[in-house]
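Why should sequence recovery work at all? Because a backbone constrains its sequence more than one might expect. Tight turns favour small or flexible residues, buried strands favour hydrophobic ones, and helices have their own preferences. The token representation captures these environments compactly. In the example below, the structure is given first.
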């Protein structure tokens, strides 16, 4: 947790925070998506919170590097997810609801980490063969075949 979010937690305790987040979809030559497993064993896209003064595109390139060892370039927005389905309560009791911008990214350098501070494993998966992800990304968003960005409008999901 960054010093900014730690400072907020010091003021509000475990109460709900709505946090802007980012996630990155990186694909290999076969179109498989890179997932990382964190130290708790949960699988997900490279992702994290946007820090003060940081543009979302800067945040995802930072998160991809920290969690995978790869340098990435943002290509486009795949979609935005949020709402009550994106609400989490962490083991320490902290409540968070993320509004997450998901970016399609391309690899521009670096080497995959064997493991790191935030990552215990990295692996490429076909979209239909992914393990359960800790965060609820819609499969359609992960396919990345839509011309426009995916988003949810009320209960109707995936309107262009």
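From this structural description, the recovered sequence reads:
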């Amino acid at each position: 947790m960054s010093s900014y979010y730690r400072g907020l937690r010091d003021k509000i305790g475990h109460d709900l925070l709505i946090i802007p987040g980012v996630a990155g979809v990186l694909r290999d030559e076969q179109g498989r998506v890179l997932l990382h497993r964190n130290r708790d064993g949960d699988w997900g896209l490279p992702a994290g919170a946007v820090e003060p003064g940081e543009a979302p595109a800067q945040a995802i390139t930072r998160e991809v590097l920290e969690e995978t060892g790869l340098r990435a370039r943002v290509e486009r927005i795949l979609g935005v997810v949020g709402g009550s389905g994106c609400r989490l309560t962490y083991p320490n009791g902290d409540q968070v609801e993320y509004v997450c911008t998901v970016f399609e990214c391309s690899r521009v350098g670096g080497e995959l980490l064997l493991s790191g501070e935030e990552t215990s494993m990295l692996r490429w998966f076909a979209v239909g063969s992914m393990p359960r992800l800790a965060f609820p990304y819609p499969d359609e968003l992960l396919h990345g075949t839509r011309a426009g960005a995916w988003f949810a409008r009320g209960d109707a999901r995936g309107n262009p």
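A few observations help interpret the result. The mean pLDDT is 89.
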